[in-house]
Design brief:
- The chain is α+β, with helices and mostly antiparallel strands.
- The protein has 2 domains: 2-117, Metal Binding Protein, Guanine Nucleotide Exchange Factor, Chain A; 152-210.
- It contains 5 helices and 7 strands.
- A 7-stranded antiparallel beta sheet has the order 1-2-3-7-6-5-4.
- Residues 1-9 and 140-149 have low confidence and may be disordered.
- It binds zinc ion.
């Protein structure tokens, strides 16, 4: 069980907040240089391509997002670049022709299973939303602070709010059921111990009275 978890984590790359996850075929990581990409026009000017990049072959899981609305996909020439809005990382690029299996990922993505475990254990990790969240600040620029707190009445925004409300309600309901089960089990155990003590006391009383 543990090995499955580890293998899973090791054959995936995650963004800085765990929102975007790129699962790839193990061993299929190839560093790519800027020159190998043979970019033209606006592509050659795009900052994403100027960092160290890795060419990966996606596995069946491929790219997953905890919260798709916290990502943005932009077209640059023949590429689509997806960034995570929650941590601000430009995560990966898909070529219009090879997007099904191959993506270029930023080498800034986290690959080390131990680092991912540390992220999950950190105080910033939200158990309900399964991503790292920055503490809410009174930032003058809400877009750079906490995406969940953005004010926007658009239909898309309402959908996001519904999604988040649904997720938090479901999470809390699940945790409540688990807590109630633990309380019932504890109460049953305590009652059992008490009746055993009762039985023993009556037995001992009879022994004492002869
Ligand atoms: Zn992120």
């Amino acid at each position: 069980m543990q090995s499955h978890e580890n293998m899973d984590a090791m054959a995936a790359l995650v963004c800085g907040c765990l929102n975007v996850r790129v699962s790839f075929v193990s061993g299929q990581l190839r560093p790519v240089s800027f020159f190998q990409l043979a970019l033209a026009g606006e592509e050659a000017l795009e900052a994403f391509f100027k960092q160290k990049l890795i060419d990966v072959t996606l596995d069946l899981t491929g790219v997953t997002k905890e919260h798709a609305f916290l990502t943005r996909r932009k077209a640059v020439g023949e590429w689509f670049i997806t960034s995570c809005l929650n941590c601000g990382m430009a995560a990966y690029a898909e070529h219009v022709k090879h997007s099904l299996h191959k993506v270029l990922v930023s080498s800034h993505l986290v690959r080390d299973a131990r680092t991912v475990e540390e992220m999950v254990r950190s105080p910033q990790y939200s158990p309900a939303f399964r991503v790292l969240l920055k503490p809410k600040t009174t930032d003058l620029s809400p877009d750079l602070g906490m995406p969940f707190a953005r004010q926007d009445a658009s239909l898309e925004r309402q959908h996001e709010l519904q999604l988040i409300n649904g997720k938090s309600t479901k999470f809390l309901r699940q945790k409540q059921l688990e807590m109630e089960k633990r309380i019932r089990e504890f109460a049953d155990q305590q009652k059992l111990e008490f009746s055993e003590l009762q039985r023993r006391t009556i037995q001992d009383k009879n022994v004492v009275l002869g």
